[in-house]
Amino acid sequence: MSAEIERKYTVKDQSYRQESIECKYYKQGYISIDKERTVRIRISGNNAFITLKGVTTGCTRKEFEYPIPVADAAEMLGSLCLPSIIEKKRYIYPYAGHKWEIDEFMGNNDGLVIAEIELKSESEQFDLPPFIETEVTGDPRYYNSNLAKHPYKTWKEKE
């Protein structure tokens, strides 16, 4: 079984951009966004993936990801995925022995910036970079699949 152990945080400034070692554009959509499972199609550059994720318990969930042809992914995004495709830039920021991924959302989620860290265990210790604001791990509003249904721009007073 493959597991994803992830913590998520809002970001208070763009200082991460200065020391990021990579920035990629992502376009992704969802074939399924049930509570029990999500099925995501993602394209980044010359790579594409189909990802299946299970229910989140704490900050852990089952995750299976497989490469697929970019042409197939593009067709799935256009014909099989639910409306509201997610677009974002992802910055990779190394900090205190960990790799942080900072997503700057675009389109209907413009203005939202989320930092994520993947861990080996839920109890793993780590230091927070200076740009971190508030932890939102477990808050379903910040799941990408929910941002496709309820984009950030539609949140009242940024709930």
From TrEMBL:
Q: Which SMART domains match?
A: CYTH
What residues make up the catalytic site?
Y30 (proton acceptor)
- Pfam families, per database record: CYTH (PF01928)
Q: Which PROSITE patterns match?
A: CYTH
Q: Which domain of life is it from?
A: Bacteria
Which residues are in the CYTH domain?
2-149
Name of this chain's protein: CYTH domain-containing protein
